[in-house]
């Protein structure tokens, strides 16, 4: 079973496991979404190394910036912002390779695209 999850601090309020596990079940995907509630950045490396079948993580505060230096590869957006919100875990020759992404930027661009088109004064 593949493992995905949310990495952050004080996550007990999160509805993510319920949402994603329901989607996995509905689509007959052999995966589980878990909360990785950590109290310090020091715990994160152990999660990345010691969670079998870990395929990806969503990242929330306070670790979005702290993770940038721990990961193997960074997207252009992460290099520019220093902020990570998604991690893809790839197995390479019995080792895990963690790739950092920031999808917040793309989401923000999409959310304001129509506003800019309708308001040429913004001129972005």
Describe, in short, the structure shown.
The chain has helices at 16-26, 42-50, 76-81, 104-118, and strands at 2-8, 31-37, 54-59, 73-74, 86-92, 95-101. It has 124 residues and is α/β, with parallel strands linked by helices.
Explain what you see.
The protein is an alpha/beta fold. The chain has a single domain (2-122), classed as Leucine Dehydrogenase, chain A, domain 1 (Rossmann fold, 3-Layer(aba) Sandwich). It is built from 4 helices and 6 strands. A 6-stranded mixed sheet has the order 2-1-3-5-6-4. The termini are far apart. The model has no long low-confidence stretch (mean pLDDT 88).
CATH superfamily label: Leucine Dehydrogenase, chain A, domain 1
What is the CATH-assigned architecture?
3-Layer(aba) Sandwich
What is the tally of helical segments? 4
Largest sheet: 6 strands, mixed
Count of individual domains: 1
Low-pLDDT runs: none
What would you call the shape?
globular
**Strand elements, count:** 6
For the residues shown, what is the average pLDDT? 88
CATH fold category name: Rossmann fold
Rg calculated over all Cα atoms? 17 Å
Chain-wise SSE layout:
Blueprint (H helix, E strand, L loop, with lengths): L1 E7 L7 H11 L4 E7 L4 H9 L3 E6 L13 E2 L1 H6 L4 E7 L2 E7 L2 H15 L6
Parallel strand pairs: 1-2, 1-3, 4-6
Antiparallel strand pairs: 3-5, 5-6
């Amino acid at each position: 079973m593949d493992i995905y999850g949310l990495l952050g601090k004080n996550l007990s309020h999160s509805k993510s496991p319920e949402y994603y596990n329901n989607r996995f079940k509905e689509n007959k995907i052999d995966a589980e979404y878990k909360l990785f509630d950590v109290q310090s950045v020091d715990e994160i490396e152990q999660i990345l190394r010691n969670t079998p079948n870990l395929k990806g993580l969503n990242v929330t505060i306070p670790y979005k910036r702290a993770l940038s230096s721990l990961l193997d590869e960074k997207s252009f957006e992460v290099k520019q912002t220093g902020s990570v919100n998604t991690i893809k875990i790839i197995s390479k020759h019995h080792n895990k390779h963690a790739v950092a992404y920031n999808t917040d930027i793309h989401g923000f661009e999409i959310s304001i695209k129509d506003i800019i088109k309708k308001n040429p004064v913004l001129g972005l």
